[in-house]
């Protein structure tokens, strides 16, 4: 994301939404319709009593909130960004924040089709909702997303769908972007380190944009991790793409840690010089992005791109790479174990 400037993070009083789910049985998800949030009245709230999600239907599809129940405005891991608008030939595209669903490679105006109109939805079961956008007239692509909250714990499964409603094949990839609450740090895993004699071939691409400054103070280039810090006082954009074979990326803000997992397919070709994971920041937010394989999507066909999310409280990253490793290794192992169980 490289065209969006100038807005403050929204700080609305939403205390009425943050009352713990009194009486909600353990192992049960509650789906609430017509919930007010950020000035709109037709949102959907999913909660299992531990965490809650706010899904939009007045615009979108978007997930605008993911937080522990009762954690207040500051507990939302996502940024909320009112008023930031990009002018395109297709209309005003608003960043809004939260998690949104796009198709890659990025192109103006194709990628920036406005999502400002109401969408439909289906409650698919006791813990799952599908958000369905009208077909984009300019592209012939219909976006939808299925969001499923586990009955216990914090795990969320997010499946993006792109359906070609047009008359000819389209070359694209699924792309899920989470705009993170400012003031935190993205953590991207490096490939396992090996000495020079251990391997003669390159391990993975690291892709830079024309505005990427590798000497910028917000970057840390380590042996085991790359980190990118969101700085509200530095408006210069930074972006990085990698082929992330480890299949995870995380964002930490004051001990609240968000981790997302996504696929790596060794035989696939990804956009942006073969990147399935990208990170972008400016002075207002940081985006954590995952990208699916490039696909020749035939008329009538649908592709899917899946992410899994978790939240963790009171995570202490400690000092330097050793501190990050001590905190992240158990979390990475636990989330991998949960994926393998299901």
Describe the protein.
It is built from 2 helices and 22 strands. By secondary structure, the protein is mostly beta strands. Strands 1, 2, 3, 4, 5, 6, 11, 13, 16, 19, 20 and 21 form a 12-stranded antiparallel beta sheet that branches. A 10-stranded antiparallel beta sheet has the order 7-8-9-10-22-18-17-12-15-14, covered by helices on one side. It has 2 domains: 142 residues, no CATH class; 157 residues, no CATH class.
Topology:
Layout: E1 30-37, E2 40-47, E3 51-55, E4 62-68, E5 80-88, E6 91-104, E7 120-125, E8 128-132, E9 141-149, E10 156-164, E11 170-180, E12 185-189, E13 206-208, E14 219-221, E15 225-229, E16 238-242, E17 248-253, E18 256-262, H1 271-274, E19 277-281, E20 286-291, E21 295-297, E22 302-312, H2 320-341
Antiparallel strand pairs: 1-2, 2-3, 3-4, 4-6, 5-6, 6-11, 7-8, 8-9, 9-10, 10-22, 11-20, 11-21, 12-15, 12-17, 13-16, 14-15, 16-19, 17-18, 18-22, 19-20
Could you list the spans in which at least 5 consecutive residues all have pLDDT below 50? 2-23
Got a strand count? Answer: 22
- The shape, in one word, is globular
- Count of structural domains: 2
Average per-residue pLDDT, rounded, comes to 92
String of helices and strands: EEEEEEEEEEEEEEEEEEHEEEEH
Helicity range: under 10%
Radius of gyration: 19 Å
Instruction: Describe the main β-sheet briefly.
Output: 12 strands, antiparallel
- Structural class call reads mainly beta
Q: State the helix count.
A: 2
Strand content: 35-45%
In whole angstroms, how far apart are the ends? 33 Å
């Amino acid at each position: 994301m490289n065209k969006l400037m100038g807005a403050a993070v929204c700080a609305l009083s939403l205390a009425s939404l943050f009352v713990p789910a009194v009486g909600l049985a353990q192992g049960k998800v509650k789906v609430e319709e017509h919930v007010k949030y950020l000035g709109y009245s037709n949102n959907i709230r999913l909660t299992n009593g531990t965490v809650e999600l706010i899904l939009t239907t007045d615009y979108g599809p978007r997930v605008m909130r993911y937080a522990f129940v009762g954690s207040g405005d500051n507990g939302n891991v996502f940024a909320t960004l009112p008023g930031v608008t990009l002018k395109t030939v297709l209309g005003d595209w608003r960043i809004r924040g939260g998690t949104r669903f796009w198709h890659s490679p990025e192109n103006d105006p194709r990628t920036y089709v406005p999502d400002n109109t109401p969408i439909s939805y289906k409650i698919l079961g006791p813990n799952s909702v599908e958000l369905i956008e009208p077909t984009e007239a300019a592209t012939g692509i219909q976006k939808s997303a299925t969001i499923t909250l586990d009955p216990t714990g914090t795990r969320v499964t997010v499946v993006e769908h792109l359906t070609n409603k047009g008359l000819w094949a389209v070359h694209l990839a699924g792309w899920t972007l989470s705009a993170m609450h400012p003031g935190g740090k993205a953590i991207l895993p490096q490939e396992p380190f090996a000495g020079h004699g251990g391997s003669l071939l390159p391990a993975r691409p690291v892709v830079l944009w024309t505005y990427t400054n590798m000497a910028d103070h917000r970057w840390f280039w380590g042996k085991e991790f790359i980190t990118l810090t969101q700085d509200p006082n530095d408006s210069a954009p930074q972006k990085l793409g990698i082929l992330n074979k480890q299949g995870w990326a995380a964002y930490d803000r004051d001990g609240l840690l968000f981790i997302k997992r996504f696929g790596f397919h060794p035989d696939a070709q990804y956009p942006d010089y073969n990147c399935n994971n990208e990170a972008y920041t400016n002075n207002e937010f940081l985006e954590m992005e995952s990208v699916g394989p490039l696909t020749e999507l035939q008329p009538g066909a649908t592709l899917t791109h899946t992410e899994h999310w978790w939240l963790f409280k009171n995570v202490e990253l400690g000092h330097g790479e050793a501190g990050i490793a001590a905190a992240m290794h158990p979390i990475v192992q636990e989330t991998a174990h949960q994926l393998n169980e299901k």
